Every structure is written in C-alpha cells, then in structure tokens.
Sequence to fold (568 residues):
Amino acid sequence: MKIAFRPKLLECLPTYNRAQFGKDLAAGLTVGVLALPLAMAFAIASGLSPTAGIWTAIVAGFIISALGGSRVQIGGPTGAFIPIIYGIVVAHGVNNLLGATLLAGVLLLAMGLARLGQVIRFIPVPVVIGFTNGIAVVIFLAQIKDFFGLQIDSLPAEFFARIEILADNADTVDLPTLILALACFFFLLFYNRLAQKFKLLQRAPGPLAVLLVGTVVVAIAAALDLPVETIETIGSRFNGIPQELPAFGLPPLSINNFGQLISPAITIALLGAIESLLSARVADGQIDDRHDPNQELIAQGLANMVVPLFGGFAATGALARTSTNARAGGRTPVAGMVHALVLLAIVLIAAPLAAYVPLATLSAIVMVVAINMGEWHHFRRLLRLTNTYRAILLTTFFLTVLFDLTVAVELGMVLSCLFFIYRMSELTRVERLPLASEADEPRFLYPDGSMRVAAWQLFGSLFFGAVNKLESLLDPAAGHPEVVILDLRQLVQIDTTGIEGLDNLLDKLKKRGCALLVCGLNAQPGYLLHRTGFVDHLGPENVCKDLADALARAYILLPNLMGGDEAY
Fold:
C-alpha cells in the first residue's frame, strides 16, 4: 500500500507571496495571544501546571500546522480533554499521563497511515453530541473549586465523590475570589456584545482581555490594601512560569504500567481524532477548502508523540482557535506556525508576569468555554426527534457526566449499532408470491388444492439481524410444497450469516423431500453465494435467471419429486 505523506504546507508554498504572509502574520499574532490564557487555563483545570499547557500549545501547535492536512487548523490543548487528562493524572500520575499521550500519538499516526480518516465520520451524531455536552458539564463542575475559592486540596475524578467533597466544603467559600470570578465570568460571557459597543475591546480576544482585566484588578486591590490576599494566583500555587526552555527527554515510565495506559491512550486518540477532524471540517466551510483527514491524523499523531518529550500533554485541533485564525485572515499553515512562535516569544520574554494571574479568572474563562462548547440546542429538539436518537444521546451524555467518556462512547456506539441492526432488519421482508391458479396450471396443485410449488421474494438485506425471517418459509401454516423458489431480485446484500441461514433452509427442505430454487441473483449476493460454496451445495442447475426460468425448472423437478407419478 502506498503511503501518501503530503502536508498542506507543501501545497501552499508554490503560490505563497508577501501579501499572504502579512495576513498569516496578523492571524498568527491574534491566535497566539488568544491561545495563551486558554493553554494555561486548560492545563490547570486538567491538574497540571500552566507551563505544561503553554508548551503543549507551542510544540503541538507548530507540528500540527506544519505537517497537517488543513490550511488553518490550530492545534493545542483543548477543553474536551480536561476530564480525560484530570482522571489520568489522579489515577496514574503525571509521568504515566505523558506515556499515555505518547502511546496515543502512535495510535493516531497508525490511523493516519492506515487511511482511517474517513472512518471517524462513522461515529453517529447523537454519540458525538452526547459526549460533547457531557464533557462540557464535567468541565464546568471541575471549575467550582477555583471559582468559589473553596479550601480543598484536590478533587477526585469520580463524579459522585467530587460532588460529595464540594458539598462538604461549601462553607469555605472565599468571598473576594467569588466576586472576581463572577465579574470575569459575566464580562467574558457578554464580551462580544460589549465589543460591538466599545471598539477598543475589538482589538483583543475575549479571554486575553478578561485575563488582563482580572490581573490588573487584583494588583490594584492589593496596592490599596484591600483584602485580596486569599485570591490564589499562578505564582502562589505554581511559583510562576519558568522563563526558559523545558527539559527535553522521555518521561520515566515503568513497563509494569504499560497495560494500564492502553485504555487511556485509546481514549485520548479517539477523542483527539474526532475533535481535530470536526474542527477541520468546520474550517473547510469558512475558507472554501477541503482538508486531508489522513494527513491530519498523521500530524496529530506526530505532535502527540513529540509533546511529552517537552513535558506537554494531549493536543488536538482546537475549534475556537481554528475559527479565529480563519476569521483573522489566515489561509495557510504559516499562520499556525506563527501562533506557536508568538507563544514561544511570550514565554521567553514575559513569563514572570504570569505569576500575577489569578486562578479565579482562569476558572471563569474555562467555564465560559464549557458553556460555548456544548450544543445545548439539541436538548431543546429532543421531543421532536425519534426515541432511538433520544436514547443514544441521553445515554452517552449521562454516562459521560456520571462515569467515564470511554464507557459512554462504547455504550453509545453499541446502542447505535443495535438500533441500526433493528432498523435494517425491519426493512428486510420475505413475501409470498402468488403463482398460477388451478385453472391455469393444475400440475402446481395437490388434489386438495394446496400448492406443490411455492415462491417467496426477499427484499432488502439478508444479514445476521434478519436471517431469522427465513423461518417463515418452514411454517406449517404455509403448506408443504415440493418446490420452494426464492426470488432474490430485490435482495441487495447478504452476509455469511445469511448464507448460513440459506444452507440450513436447504438442509431442512431436503429432509422433507423438497427442492430449493433461487433466481434473480444480484451482483453481491451472487458473488458470495458462489464463493462460499452454497451454489455447489444447492446445485448450479437450481440457480435460475428469473422467476419464469425457475418455474420451468420446477416443471422438470415435480415428476421426480412425486416418484414419477404424474397423476397430479
């Protein structure tokens, strides 16, 4: 199999010019500034240091843009990964998180090389909406501790244990933290409306504006000796952000823990593939282009393999930053590469200033991200949709919130498959075909008037979910014909279970002394019936062109089946 490796960057370079570089530079600066508060906020919400989030955005952002299959995709940490990463950190530790990320990168790379980019689109819409909205709720709840300034050392990953601890410590709310968080939350929630009235706000992305305002407010309050010393900052919890490059190297891993990392790695890879390809599809509509899903998975895999070497964690395509890039004029991967270099410059030049950023402001930013990422309008439409759609969406949603994303997606997919099998089986029909009357063809009749030849027509697909419908041919109420004809003109597909069902039917009819004829084979059923040996078992002479040909064959068989007696 030929492996195609052609990043979008190579496609863009031959026609690249100075004018496009100017647009990409402006877009990269805009997205780089936007990515800074989000990278820190997502990392802290995931139980990691803000430094890990920034370096994830830098390294993964550069690789995904340089090697990806989309012109405008921006990679980095995203809100969707927060509950996954937090759960892995709590259960396995940071080092094992880095190992799971690296393993997920290998899986993503393998998916891209195997050209499975289109397969991700097979995940049903209600499953995607269910876990997306569920993740949004989990992210929102995870920010309650920092939003209210609760005196809790750490929160468990399990939903019920987390709610219990939050309820037990509800009386430890820090009022200055809550006031700041609420102000930042509502300021960001209505930022777009405010920006329409105040042109000054249009020059800065909402999260950056909130970050600056929140930091300045706390600094001024401290200078005025107001009681804000209880408000936690990046400096007080993490000792700031180092103004240097991170240590490079493989994370210390134990071979004994490898088995425990497979499930988290699969979860990271699956979610990363889904989110990145969804983001790329949305971006295609904004810039009138078409991304390469396999190349995108290759880039995502390489990024997640390299990021842990710099202390970073899982990265994928970020929809909000990608859309911002497209709206800001970015049209080539150069804009995404500039965004990563902007973040690098900020770390190397202005890292000490991050120590004053209040965690309450970052928690407010993450809460607004959670609200915006949820597709809540689908809940309003549930009453107008089918019971199947509702069952899959709500099951996936509640399992994501209450238990685990992996379990939610697995059960959501199982339910989707079961409902699909049921619907397909309902489309498969076996109907009796009326044949000649006694006046027309007396040889088709027994003395009592019942038919010696019975014809049935199959509609749809004869697969494992519908093969039981062949049993109606053996129903005593249908009589005891000596020749059974199956008209397969309307049978479009058959699987090996369907072949097995026909084999069983043939054997049972032979035991009764009956003959089986088939006619009207389409391409796929005909190919499989020959390939599996069913035709040899049936007898090639009993495979007829059409119903008329099958009836002619029945004329020939009837005297032999009656022991040579032609009295009938």
The domain at 428-561 is CATH 3.30.750.24 (Transcription Regulator spoIIAA). The longest strand covers residues 483-494. Residues 564-568 have pLDDT under 50 and may be disordered. The chain is about 60% helix and 5% strand.
